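Q: Can I see a sequence and its folded structure?
A: Here is a first one.
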Amino acid sequence: MDVTLLGTGAPAGLPRPHCPCAACATALGEHARAASALLVDGALLLDLTPGAAFAAARAGHSLGGVTQVLLSHPHDGPAVEVPAGLPQPGRVPDGRELALLTGHRVRAVALDAPGTGYAVTGPDGQRLLYLPPGGAPAGLEEGSPETYDMVLADVVGRPDALAKLRAVGAVGPATDVIAVHLDHDVPPGAELVRRLAAAGARAVPDGTTLTVGVYEDVPDVPRRTLVLGGARSGKSVEAERRLETFPGVLYVATGGARGGDTEWAARVAAHRERRPGSWRTTETCDLVPLLKEDGPPLLVDCLSLWLTDAMDGVGAWDDADWAGGGERALRERVTELTTAVRTTARTVVAVSNEVGSGIVPATASGRRYRDELGRLNTAFAAECEQVLLVVAGQALPLRG
């Protein structure tokens, strides 16, 4: 089953008309995208958009063989003209299945937002799922659907849709996840590629024809990632974003509750509000047992506070205790942690502060903490497939 993407952008296209934002200003050439529409085996058109016939011609196809046109979402603005010879577009009621003379079967998938998703099974048995902008499947049950060979969805706008599909096994490691309905939320080019790769997804230019079931281009999601950054750099947001398309993430908060500290409580509340509802939270600095267990992905925020707890435990703030065995004990704890990271089977994203580039601390204990955090970050990064430095909300890959 072949799928030609006549467009891969949001309903208004990319760049948006008359939009002055930086993302739209750079969405030129191959980064420009028409509204998303799919041509399946030249017979089924999913979403009729302005200029669909010209888009098909540019891709080397014709709409002359289309026997069914289905709409996935309400279209704003003037009605789209139906090209001559094309059947009138329609929608399939949720849960109903449509059989085409070409051997394709199309099932309408209920969503949690206005619109309809379409699960298409080709004559060869290959299966794809197409979701409209801003939509995620509703009423999924674990083990109920088969695994799709290809999913085309609003990965940037609704990352939780991918998490829901992964939770029930509808998306597996070999599923080719294609981002469509791309808008100006993420700058095109390298930043978009990086964001999608973290979700195990990719984007392709308008006019691309894909063969369902061919998945050698599926990005490999890094299993261990360290996200570094200064205060308020956006490092925690970046770490959370890397796992938002995965279900059941365990968020490991190493800072504790700090009863009575209202400013800290406000920070914790802001973090919790950002997290998907399917994530769980545990407050602990005992990371090694978690790394040794099997389970869902871990998000550790942050190593800096883990180090504070570890230095408290070995008496690192007292010079005599430090010289009398505290330094050796801390080295052993760091080695135990990094060894657990090296051997873990879980997906791990860890956050840490990068403090070595600023003013030299005025106190001996401050300098000791700065030095030990630099050593910890170095040792932890050595065990990770990917290391990022976040500056002003922009993630710079250092490794991987």
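Q: Show me another, different protein.
A: A second, unrelated one:
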Amino acid sequence: MSTRQETGTATAHRVVIVGAGYAGMAAAVQLAARMKRREGVEVTVVNAQERFAERMRLHMTATGQRLAELSIPELLEGTGARFVRGWVTAVDADARTVRTDDDRVLHYDTLVYGLGSVADTAAVPGVEDHAYTLSSAQDAELLAERLARLGGGTVVVAGSGLTGIESAAEIAERHPELNVVLLGRTEPGAAMNPKAKAYVRAALDRLGVQVRAGVEVVKVLPGAVELAGGESVTADAVLWTSGTRISPPAAAAGLAVDAHGRILTDAALRSVSHPEVYAIGDAAAIRQGYGVMHGTCQGGMPTGVHAALSIDRVLKGKQPKPFRFGYYHTPVSLGRGDAVVQFTRPDDSPRRICLTGRLAVRYKETVTASPWPTYGRMKKMPALGALWPRGGRFTRNREAK
């Protein structure tokens, strides 16, 4: 008996969305809201946890701060979408099935692939065994427990990107008894304008964070990290924020991927090898006029919405439109009372304008808190989710069709 016959809707078009992060939730809410009054379309959302992980706040979770409990099933109530809790262990792009860790098999006609990135713990020896990550709320909570047990000592934050900066600042502020060392190949805030970069460095200095730029961690040991050149830095805890990798089911499914494991897409966010699969967020290699997008919430949510709009158009017998997106800011928290916001051109290069201090804190908090209420508004008025900066000339791709 086929899955369609089992559900009693033999002609239903089955849309399965795997991953309910920022991009996946945007796709799920947008599509479910648009399909709510349409017969013959089933929307299923698959995620490992019922709790929505606010990845933009995981550095807060890692220091023991309690966050709101955001329930994915509760948000989906009234949309008609079905929620399935389970780890996605395999996708068969030819058979059009998704398998979860409890051996459940879900059949799809259209798949939205939103299994995003996690910390790359395989690239450097010892990371998997001896370092903490912020790949999930559970990972962040493990670090919080470790930090709470330390009465002193050194915490090494490996990686001087935005996650590393925010984590080092948060740990130093919440745990002044700890020595926090931030290690990275580049200076913190290297992509910002000189004023914003200097502000970041001054804030880290004020918090007592020891910054060492131009170094590379080549091994993580039980009580230290080893740098290129042979030097060791003592560490009672190591937080790894240097590099990410994409969840492996995409490549294993036979989908065309790039060197980083991201699904190659056409202009409408469809897999170039399997057009019934849409890739969104960190999982997708989305090319714009300025190059391939990098993973952020500001870009991820629009990809999810656009995938939903594209599916809606295809089901109506229309052609999907090309996706275009331009960056507009880089907000970075520096503890609870300080922040910097670097405004950017659509290609993510820094503008001369930036915010600092309390005004930047309010701006950053507004941005961080915005996804959940945005999903709620989309349930009632899905068109509200289809508004984002298209980027003008920066995002025009001559190859897009």
